[in-house]
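haha ok so turns out i had the wrong file open the whole time. this is the CORRECT one, sorry everyone. sequence first:
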Amino acid sequence: MRDLLVAFIVFGSLPFILKRPFWGIVLLAGLGYMNPHRLCYTFMLNMPVVQIVAIVTLIGMLMAKEAKRMIWSREIVVLVIFVVWMGLTTTQAFNSNAAWIQYEKVIKIQILTFMTLLLLTTRERVNLLVWAIVFSLAFYGVKGGIFTIAKGGVHRVQGPYGTFIGGNNELALAMVMTIPLMYYLYMHEKHKWLKPGLMAGMILTAIAAFGTQSRGALVALTLTGAIFWLKSRTKIRTAVLIAVAGLVGLSLMPEEWFERMNTIQTYGEDESAIGRINAWWTAWHMANDRIFGGGFETWIPSVFARYAPDPSNVRDVHSIYFEVLGEHGWPGLILFLSLLALTWMKCSSVIRFARKHPEALWAKDLAAMIQVTMVAYMSAGAFLGLAYFDYIYHVVAIVVVVHHMVVVEPSRRAGVSGDVSTGLGQSARLGASP
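then structure:
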């Protein structure tokens, strides 16, 4: 039954996607983050649904007259250079066969990112994409929160097997990244009956993050909560939300959870932490020795034998920063950090502009919450190898589009009309239909 339902949704959507390819972008986000096919049992389990929908969406983009727009901002230029650089490092990879397979995956993710960028032309489309991301990951947040409450936090919350968020740590990062976007939707949702659901979803998702028993999630929740409060317009409501989610989550956790979290302070005695630090030093030495780094999937015994302080302790690097450093060298890390920094600054630009233009309040709130999302990614990502997770590249695309829509286009129109607010209104109405 589950397979039939997923098949009906996916294949039944294809004719509509050919006519309106943006719906393909929305469906691809749902398939990429929720991975409903990975929850099936028979013919849909290994069906290449993302590839099928992506091909149909590309065909629709070529055939349909739907509005498309390419924005060559500095962030997108840096992203293109980063992708090209990863291709160069792949040619020099230690683990060549595996590196080319991984680079192919990265290319597919970036193709979807650029497809999104081309079709994300209006505020309505931005909100639909945010809804698709939030709904997909809130599915696991709400489900995981209820599971954690029912089981008293004894069992770990896990994601769907064989996906980016299959592990408890990876799922925790994705859920913590999603809570700020849920709050943005809560602030601007016009249907009041949806607001209690979004509020409950935020609390349950935070509880689910506790329930993953991920130490990185605890760090991310702490830092994200602080930035969340600073960025929020309604600080009392936000403080209550954070306090309720934190107190409920902590009250549900068993003694074993607290013992596991306490190992953060005694990482020198933790085998997992020692292994990660050994891999981080491996990345450091490799980047200093080779400008191209070791290429994708470089974390193999022969590399550790050459660069690791402890060659016998072979582990995955488990850090977005050292992952990029080890695999793509110092130029790769500089490009990756530049992309994150430029995206953060673009959010700040939207916030500054919107303070003077009340019509752009929605963009200010979205930019602020995306900065909170980035804090979650950058903090939890310090302990996870998710440098190529499509979520962060979706975030970059959204920020670039919102800045162009709210700041660049109205400013250009203001140069003609002399009224920025008029430009904002025209920008919001342009192509309003998704």
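DSSP finds 17 helices and no strands in the chain.
again sry for the mixup
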